[in-house]
Amino acid sequence: MSGPSNCPVAALSAETATPVTDVTWSRADETFTEEFRVDSDVAAENTTALADADPVLEVGDERVYQFSREAGPDATCACEVVESLGHPLADVRVEGGDLVLTLHLPGVERLQEVVSDLEAVADDVEMRYLVHAAADGEGRGDRTVVDRGRLTERQREVLATAYELGYFEYPREANATEVAEALDVGLSTFAEHLAAAQGKLLSETLAV
């Protein structure tokens, strides 16, 4: 998801283009505390993005930071929003200013609830991939995780336009030239983006 704008971890990642990992949090009484690690050199060069966070200690080449705020019924922290719904987060990381959350849910209806609440505090919410699995391991079929995050925005646009125009239908409702014209690109550029996007998707779909 993009933002939230009040998250110093997201702000740091957006300014430095550096992924931030090992994000953890805790709540004591009415205080919500979040902790994360970042490269010491990156931290030294981006003090503005870390203005709301306090340095705790140095661990090798990394610096550990914490920031706290009052917890309340009107949560504006994405992590707090998800956990307030009773869903523990399995992993939290930040890439290019986007907060990436991993969580395990019992059903799609719970996912809709989480997305709805996150949209109230984030600039944009997007599901990168969804994995269905039976709790007992049965009836799983032959499912594969496909990470749409591997595609560039241009590759997504090319795939979406080609799909909408019927390029993948049989017989085709639009040829490569027509799709390229709709995208306002040359035929070779369209073919290049399409091949790259299909290659990424197939490498995950057919991976053993």
Automatic annotation (TrEMBL):
Q: By its UniProt entry, which PANTHER family does this protein fall under?
A: DIMETHYL SULFOXIDE REDUCTASE TRANSCRIPTIONAL ACTIVATOR
What residues does the DmsR-like N-terminal domain cover? 2-132
Mind listing the UniProt keywords for this protein, alphabetically? Transcription, Transcription regulation
> What's the protein here called?
Helix-turn-helix domain-containing protein
Keyword Nucleus attributed = no
All copies of the HTH bat-type domain together span 151-202
Q: Which Pfam families does this chain map to?
A: DmsR_N (PF24277), HTH_10 (PF04967)
List the taxonomic lineage.
Archaea, Methanobacteriati, Methanobacteriota, Stenosarchaea group, Halobacteria
| Keyword Transcription regulation recorded | yes
